[in-house]
Amino acid sequence: MRRLLFVASVGFACTKTPTPVVEPTAPATTVPALDAVTTTEPVAEPTRCASLQTCLAMVGDVEIPYSDFAAVYDLKVAKYTVRGREIPATADRRYRKSISNRLIYHEMLRQEAKARGLAYDPDALAEREGQQQRGIRDWAKHLERRGETEASLRDMYVSELLEVEILQADGELEVTTEEVQEDYEKIKQNWRSDKPRVRASHILVSLLPADPDPANPPSNAQRKQWEAEARAKAKAIHEEVKQPGADFAAIAAQKSVGPSASRGGDIGIFTADRMAQEFSRAAFRMKVGQISKPVRTKFGYHIIKLTGSWPAGALPLEALDDQIRERLRQRKLHQGRRTLRERFEAKYEVLDNLSLIHI
Questions:
Q1: End-to-end CA distance of the chain
Q2: How far apart are CA 70 and CA 59, in angstroms?
Q3: Cα 85–Cα 91–Cα 95 angle in degrees, nearest 5
Q4: Are 304 and 282 in contact (CB under 8 A)?
Q5: Does domain 1-13+48-192+316-359 have CATH number 1.10.4030.10?
Q6: CA dihedral of 142, 298, 293, 303, whole degrees rounded to 10
Q7: CB distance 278 to 296 below 8 Å
Q8: CA nearest 196: which of 324, 283, 78, 296?
Q9: Please, are residues 309 and 224 in contact by the beta-carbon 8 Å criterion?
Q10: Alpha helices of the chain — where are they, by DSSP H?
């Protein structure tokens, strides 16, 4: 539920001076001393969140400082100004609206979680932040290019974790055995193949930094240095995962780069022609449970663990069960996030200073 507040103190608001109203003059009276007057009329409190210069919005009775908005918005604008360009009007409106809506929604999430006694897992937050920074040599420059601050990124990660906590508490992310079976019947023909298949996890050590600067391509000497560093790192990781009791998935989550890191390195089921030749050659020679030495491809060095192997033909449900469950859970999470926003917008009273002026 949103209500808009007229912001008279902002320079780009309406500045037309209202026509004064002349009140009739009352007869002169003798005004008693102030301490002799007893009044029961309440004294009006100053309006909260009255100026966009200091307050972006208010959710319930919690103010969102305008400085939180400006910290991100200024970085978005700077992506244009550093190149000597003026931000297009359409992009400017898009940034203002998206940043404002984001901050308001995040505050709704915090209030909802607090009211229900829910909290995010600090270890999950630390893991997410570590994954984002892995392989990035200049984190400050990376943030600048994204147009975000350390605090704004953390706020987004926390909000995503709170969404999961709320949806799990509501039972909206539960995937039943019946749902898995039903989905398997729909897709099992898609997994039929006349070629053998394997499933693997990997730890990838990139040959390049995660945030290469296109304006400054590396020299041959720099590339050789990165190659040597990647090879040494891959050898060290290989020694680590070969230790008795080592948790390959946990190490992959900590040290691998790329999207599979968040899944413990799992890259799913594939035929030989779906992967780089060097990768497939190694994987299809392995036995289930075996871990390879570092394998070099154009992407970097891979330490591979084989987790499944099947001949040509259909795949059994057991081979696809966890993938189906995760896909269905992600589908519910995606839908749940949309419904959460709709529910909160109807539930929470929002005073939005920016919407009246810019959006």
A1: 16
A2: 18
A3: 115
A4: yes
A5: yes
A6: 40
A7: yes
A8: 283
A9: no
A10: 66-81, 89-115, 122-133, 139-146, 150-169, 177-187, 220-241, 248-255, 277-283, 317-347, 353-358
CA distance 326 to 48: 45
Cα torsion at 230, 236, 237, 239 (round to 10°)? 150
Q: Both tokens of residue 59?
A: 């959710």
User: What whole-number distance in Å separates Cα of residue 182 and Cα of residue 176?
Assistant: 10
- Encoding tokens for residue 312? 């040509």
**Claim: this prediction has a pTM higher than 0.70:** yes
Residue 282 exposure: Cα atoms within 13 Å on the Cβ side: 21
Model pLDDT for residues 167-211, shown as the tens digit of each residue? 999 999 999 999 999 999 999 999 999 999 999 999 999 998 766
Give Cα separations from 132 to 106, 152, 259, 300 (angstroms).
20, 14, 10, 18
* Tokens representing residue 17 in the block: 């001076």
CA atoms within 13 A on the CB side of 163: 21
Tell which CATH classification among 3.90.10.10, 3.10.20.30, 3.40.50.970, 3.10.50.40 matches the domain 193-211+219-313: 3.10.50.40
Write out the two tokens for 45.
């409190």
229: three-class secondary structure by DSSP: helix
Q: Which two tokens stand for residue 170?
A: 């509501």
Which among 47, 45, 67, 65 is positioned nearest to 57, based on CA atoms?
A: 65
Question: What are the structural domain ranges in the chain?
Answer: 1-13+48-192+316-359, 193-211+219-313
pLDDT digits (tens, 9 = 90+) for 122-155: 999 998 898 888 878 889 988 988 999 999 999 9
Rounded to 5°, the CA angle 177-183-188 comes to 120
